[in-house]
Amino acid sequence: MDTTNNQSVTDDQELAKVLETMNQEAEGGVPPVPTSDSATPASDPVTNGDGLSFEETPPAGAPVVDPVATVDAPAVEEPVVASPVEEPVVTTPVIEPLAPVTPVTPAASPELDAIKKTALEELRPLVDKLDLPADEKFDTLLLLIRSTDDKSLVAAAHDAAKAIEDETKRAQALLDVIKEIDYFSGHGQQPV
Question: Residues 179, 184, 190, CA angle at the centre, nearest 5°?
Fold first, then answer.
């Protein structure tokens, strides 16, 4: 008989036992009780001669004996109780109306500010002569209104907004007109 082959089979069985025991302990189960028909080393039935403890794995096809289960009582599985799931708290952000935006210019030089002011003054009488599509004309008028705070351009901006063909752009332009009117209404009531 080949002792190397026998030793390999025994080592494989011992490894399988150790792995099974570790898996059962991790799952909170009870390790199996060794059966009387399994082979154990001759030196010690609980240790392998090196002082290491192990448990025998029953041969393939042999029934597994559970020391907790009895013949009279059927095995009853405990129901798995799921932990309660906390519903996430959803908060809805409060959206406050935007105040009219006045363009914030970076710290420009006084020369550039003077050129801008002169260009705006020169553009004001020529705005009606611009041959632009309605949406571009509205944008130009809105720029003039916001740069100069000239209330007299609001009516022209409103007319340009009404002439915009795209309904989405028209709606946005009309909202901008309303914002400018609200700005002037609120701005006129506060002392400057």
Answer: 125
* Of the listed ranges 29-33, 84-88, 98-102, 162-166, the one predicted with least confidence: 29-33
Q: What gap in Å lies between CA 61 and CA 59, rounded to an integer? A: 6
Task: Give the closest residue to 180 by CA, choosing from 192, 167, 160.
Answer: 160
Instruction: Please list, in sequence order, all residues whose beta carbon lies within 8 angstroms of the beta carbon of residue 67, skipping any fewer than 6 positions away.
Output: 30, 33
Residue 12 to residue 146: CA distance in whole angstroms: 86
Report the alpha-carbon distance of residue 44 to residue 56 in Å, rounded: 12
10 vs 3: which has the higher pLDDT: 10
At 190 the pLDDT is 47
Measured between alpha carbons, how far is 146 from 103 in angstroms, rounded to an integer? 7
3 state DSSP class of 180: helix
Residue count (the chain): 192
| Main-chain phi, psi angles of 92, to 5 degrees | -95, 125
